[in-house]
Design goal:
By secondary structure, the chain is mainly alpha-helical. The chain has a single domain, classed as HIV-1 Nucleocapsid Protein, CATH 4.10.60.30. Helix content is 29%, strand content 0%. The protein has 4 helices and no strands. Keywords: Cytoplasm, Metal-binding, RNA-binding, Translation regulation, Zinc, Zinc-finger. GO terms for molecular function: RNA binding; zinc ion binding.
């Protein structure tokens, strides 16, 4: 269970308005502090990322993402009852 202090610290960080995508890509503070990456519903808010079209799946706008986060390239884990998991913990 998180302590009250860590909860308050988390809430403070949640209120900081900045776009991690733009900051990590070297955009100036005057750009990355004008918006957030995604809204509370997970829709992309960043104008730079929204304009990007994933070359793998064609997503852009609300569902935009970079190649690294493309759902079409993420591994799929399949669980089949009756097949031993060999002690793997998920």
């Amino acid at each position: 269970m998180a302590s009250k202090g860590s909860d308050e610290k988390f809430q403070r960080h949640r209120r900081v308005k900045l776009c991690v995508f733009c900051r990590n890509n070297g955009e100036p503070e005057s750009v990355f502090k004008t918006h957030i990456l995604k809204d509370a519903n997970g829709r992309v808010n960043c104008p730079v990322l929204r304009a990007y079209t994933c070359p793998t799946c064609g997503a852009s706008g609300d569902d935009a993402h970079t190649l690294k986060y493309c759902p079409a390239t993420q591994p799929t884990i399949i669980y089949s009852p009756g097949i031993p998991d060999n002690g793997v913990k998920w």
